[in-house]
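Title: [Solved] Thioredoxin 3D structure

Original question kept below for reference.
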Amino acid sequence: MTNKSLFIGVAAFIAIIFIAAVGVYQSKLPATVESNKLPALERTNAPTKGGSNAKVTIVEFFDPACGTCSQFYPLVNNLVKKYQGKVKVVMRYAPLHQGSQDVVKMLEAAHMQGQFWPAVELLFANQQRWVEHHVSNPTQALAGIKTLKLDHEKLDSDWQSSQVAKVVAQDIQDGQTLNVRATPQFFVNGKPLVVFGYQELVELIEEAVAQAY
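Solution (posted by the thread starter after getting help):
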């Protein structure tokens, strides 16, 4: 067997193992959220975008250091725009990467100044500057956020406050209750995205819109 053939064989084997692992992970997510766990989808004052009276709610648990979250961000925005007034997205923190817990605290502090969306967009657009080998660098992330029009002293005070720590702790606890083990994890009107993929998310939203309207 040549080195090239060996490499292809190993790569194929790794791909099969990866697909199998994803299948195991996905199979652990139920088709619907148990009624006693539904409150875990909601948190007062979580960052929200879309129609205030929308009958379809996308809840996304995300990590700002997650590359897939960054890739899905504009796609989800486009879906909210497509169903203008009918769909909204609610963002919940799931800091699964090393160092991300401080970064989501910084995002929540920016949210307190009405700057969550510019801050998260900036972090997604510049991930390569503050994430290395899947590890977050909070100092670099904070430097990026501070390029926005914010009260820097208040930002520094807020992100290290017990109030913000409590918010992030609730999101982490709610994520655990809902069995969130990877990001992004989407829920549409209480139904989790069991098989991950953009088309699968579109179909879940289409179904929810058809039922709601």
